[in-house]
Amino acid sequence: MDSRNLWRLVSWCGVVALLLSVGSLRSGWRSPLSWAGDPKAPSPTNQGLEHLKGMTPQQIARTPWKKKPDHYWKKHLSPLPFYVCRKAGTERPFTGKHLHNKEKGVFVCSSCGHLLFDSKTKFNSGTGWPSFYDVYDKHAVRENIDSSHGMIRKEVVCARCNAHLGHVFDDGPKPTGLRYCINSVCLEHRSHQYAASVKDAHRRRP
Ligand SMILES: [Zn+2]
Predict the structure, then answer these.
(1) Separation of 165 CA from ligand 1 center, angstroms?
(2) Cα of 193 to ligand 1 centre, how many Å?
(3) What is the set of active-site residues?
(4) In the chain, N or C terminus with fewer CB closer than 10 Å?
(5) Which pTM was predicted?
(6) How many angstroms does the Cα of residue 94 sit away from the middle of ligand 1?
(7) Residue 66: pLDDT over 90
(8) How far apart are CA 76 and CA 102, in angstroms?
(9) For residue range 69-114, what is the model confidence (pLDDT) as tens digits?
């Protein structure tokens, strides 16, 4: 290969490399390695509930969440949680961020931060949605009869803000025999210390 052909080859390689890099930037593609090492990526347990930041547990407990209008939730929830939690939708199975979450702690309402489930009662139901055999305590959720889609089911909603969470069925494991089938987008994960601080704040409520 003479020097002119060699120069041509090098030029072509440069053009191809430039086109590839522009294409990947336009499509938003990033190497998986660039994600794995991203030190700024937030922990999954610290996402969500931005609208509660700056509020004390007492202020959160006193807020009349059930009276908040749709435009409030539309402003503070992203489209999928708004559709599922405020419009009784359902996220696609096997897509939720908490389906395989085995971290110890509690699951709180993604709308109002209310304590809903303990990780101790989470189990793999194989249905594609996070499943629990019990609620956090007797104040956690309320149940409504849901006759949509030609079925009679028990809808589960957050007792504090009425967010739709999912449904409860009676084919769960012992000791309750219940299966709370819950959408991931309606939940946020928090530590047991967080749960203890919330309960402590409630005890000291005037
Ligand atoms: Zn709630």
Answers:
(1) 9
(2) 19
(3) 181
(4) C
(5) 0.75
(6) 23
(7) yes
(8) 27
(9) 999 999 999 999 999 999 999 999 999 999 999 999 999 999 999 9
- The residue assigned the tokens 């402590």 is 200
Q: How far is CA 55 from the centre of its chain?
A: 21
Burial 106-136 (b: 16+ CB within 10 A, else e): bbbbbbbbbbbbbbebbeebeeebbbbbbbb
CA 114 to chain centre: 14
Cα 109 to ligand 1 centroid, rounded to whole Å: 5
Domain 48-203, CATH class in plain words = mainly beta
Q: How far is the CA of 114 from the centre of ligand 1 (A)?
A: 5
Residue whose entry in the numeric block shows the structure tokens 């390695």: 33
Q: How many helices (H) and strands (E) does the chain have?
A: 7, 9
> From CA 115, how far away is CA 106, in angstroms rounded?
7
The letter for the amino acid at 110 is: S
Cβ(73)–Cβ(83) below 8 Å: no
Three-state SS for 130-150 is CEECCCCCCCCEEEEEECHHH
